[in-house]
Design brief:
Shape of chain B: globular
Mean pLDDT of chain A: 82
Order of helices and strands of chain B: HHHHHHHH
Number of helices of chain B: 8
Distance between the termini of chain A: 125 Å
Radius of gyration of chain A: 42 Å
Number of helices of chain A: 3
Strand content of chain B: under 5%
Low-confidence stretches of chain A: none
Radius of gyration of chain B: 18 Å
Helix content of chain A: 25-40%
Low-confidence stretches of chain B: none
Order of helices and strands of chain A: HHHEEEEEEEEEEEE
Helix content of chain B: over 70%
Mean pLDDT of chain B: 82
Oligomer: heterodimer
Strand order of the largest sheet of chain A: 1-2-5-4-3-12
Distance between the termini of chain B: 35 Å
Structural class of chain A: alpha+beta
Largest sheet of chain B: none
Number of strands of chain B: 0
Largest sheet of chain A: 6 strands, antiparallel, barrel
Strand content of chain A: 15-25%
Structural class of chain B: mainly alpha
């Protein structure tokens, strides 16, 4: 019984394999007009309407699966577009950032040209940290002694004076701003030449005072205050700041024409949003005016 | 041939015809993640697991021939491949009688892989220009992956169709044999 079953199975398999090989051989051996090809064409003709009918009947099922596939694919496309959109937004931001930085550099360059600061070996630097206190009295920049920056070097932006370097490392420096109480800047009123010293006021982080202005000098609002540079002929009284760098403008004056006149100054530079600065690494002619 | 045998044969013919038509009219036109499902090897594997090697070999031959005729492919090629696949899986079931729930999936994946690779190799050997390379590999892998997902539902459908006309459910037969002692190894002693 077992042998007969095995034999029958093997015979069936052998016949099927032989039939398949025969079909293959005949199909390859005959031309396009041969019997098997004709049968195939006939089968196609018979099956074509069936296939068409089946295709129509199965269209809803196909659409359903296709809809699911399209939804998944659309989701994928959405993700692709979102990624692309994010990349374009980054590019746009980088572009606007570059434009803004370019404007700052242009202002710096204009200041350099106007005041002839190119001889002061200016070093451009980016602000990499800012004091987290409400007073914003120090910033950290990404250039240090390796670029010739030393303690005491004045720091400017295209708008005007920012402060001076107080700490230097090889690749970074700390700049103390002119609003810090440790800083005093020899200054003068640009229009009248009235000399004085700019120091932080007590009112707020943005307030400066022009002090020690003689009563014979009348100072009005909106007058520009600039650095005076070195006035004394004595070598040891040399100013750290070149002359003519804009500091700020007078906002108001209390008790004008007296020895106690209080001149309030607002800095030109936006000290709370500094991004690019320039460090003047070399004094020109002892920071004396020409 | 007994009544059940005739009924099984007719059901298998119907199953084969439906499979090819559905494959051509619907499934072949759908891509899932860039891959197309191929129901033919899945159905052959399911028939092999349920009906055994001889029936599966005959079914594979028939469905392959029908498929080659309908798709105007090389006649006899799919017949040869699918009868071999059906026979091999059927013999595996007869000799090992695997019982895991994932057996249909494994059998479907093996059948699909053997069918796709075998078809490509045979076409290549017969001189048909085959896009050898990563494109072909990815297509084969994609079809195998999609078929792995479809294997269980296809097996369930085939089982529902042919089980009523099978001589006896192999699982029921084995359980009864052991519980009654008829085929128990202990009863031989």
């Amino acid at each position: 019984m077992y042998d007969r079953t095995v034999r029958r199975r093997r015979i069936t398999l052998g016949l099927l394999v032989a039939a398949a090989l025969l079909l293959l051989t005949v199909y390859f051996g005959e031309g396009a007009g041969g019997g098997l090809h004709s049968v195939q064409r006939g089968a196609l003709e018979v099956l074509a309407p069936v296939q068409e009918g089946a295709s129509r009947v199965l269209k809803p099922a196909r659409d359903l699966v296709g809809w699911a596939g399209d939804t998944i694919s659309a989701k994928g496309r959405l993700e692709d577009l979102e990624t692309s959109n994010a990349a374009l937004r980054r590019q746009a931001l980088a572009g606007s950032e570059a434009r803004r930085q370019n404007a700052q550099y242009e202002k710096l360059l204009a200041l350099d040209r106007r005041l002839g600061l190119a001889a002061a070996a200016p070093v451009a630097a980016r602000v990499i940290a800012q004091s987290p206190t409400a007073w914003f009295s120090t910033i950290t920049i990404d250039q240090g002694s390796s670029r010739g920056i030393a303690v005491g070097a004045p720091v400017v932006t295209g708008d005007g004076l920012v402060g001076q370097v107080t700490t230097v490392t090889g690749g970074a420096s700390v700049v103390t701003l002119i609003t810090d109480s440790a800083i005093a800047v020899p200054a003068r009123v640009s229009a009248t030449g009235a000399p004085g010293v700019v120091q932080p006021g007590a009112g707020g982080p943005g307030d400066l005072r022009l002090k020690y202005v003689a009563r014979r000098f009348r100072v009005g609002p909106d007058a520009a205050v600039v650095t005076s540079g070195t006035i004394s002929q004595a070598e040891r009284l040399q100013s750290r700041y070149p002359p003519g760098i804009p500091i700020g403008y007078v906002t108001r004056v209390e008790d004008p024409g007296t020895d106690n006149q209080k001149i309030f100054v607002r800095p030109y530079a936006d000290l709370q949003r500094l991004e690019t600065v320039q460090v003047l690494t070399r004094p020109i002619n002892g920071n004396r005016g020409s | 041939m007994s009544g059940r045998g005739k009924s099984l044969a007719w059901r298998l013919v119907l199953l084969g015809a439906l499979t090819v038509i559905i494959q051509i009219a619907a499934v072949s036109q759908l891509t899932i993640f860039g891959a197309r499902a191929d129901l033919t090897p899945l159905v052959v594997a399911a028939v092999a697991l349920l009906c055994g090697s001889v029936a599966a070999a005959g079914f594979g031959f028939g469905i392959g021939l029908f498929s080659n005729l309908a798709l105007v492919q090389t006649v006899g090629l799919s017949s040869l491949l699918l009868l071999g696949i059906g026979y091999a899986i059927g013999r595996f079931r007869e000799l090992r009688d695997p019982q895991g729930a994932l057996v249909p999936v494994i059998a479907g994946v093996a059948a699909t892989a053997a069918d796709r690779i075998g078809f490509s190799v045979m076409e290549f050997l017969l001189g048909t220009p085959v896009p050898l390379g990563w494109t072909l590999v990815l297509e084969i892998l994609g079809t195998v992956a999609v078929n792995a997902v479809l294997a269980l539902p296809v097996y369930a459908l085939v089982r529902a169709l042919v089980l009523p006309v099978l001589p006896e459910d192999p699982r029921r037969r084995r359980r009864r044999a052991y519980t009654t002692g008829g085929l128990s190894p202990l009863s031989r002693s």
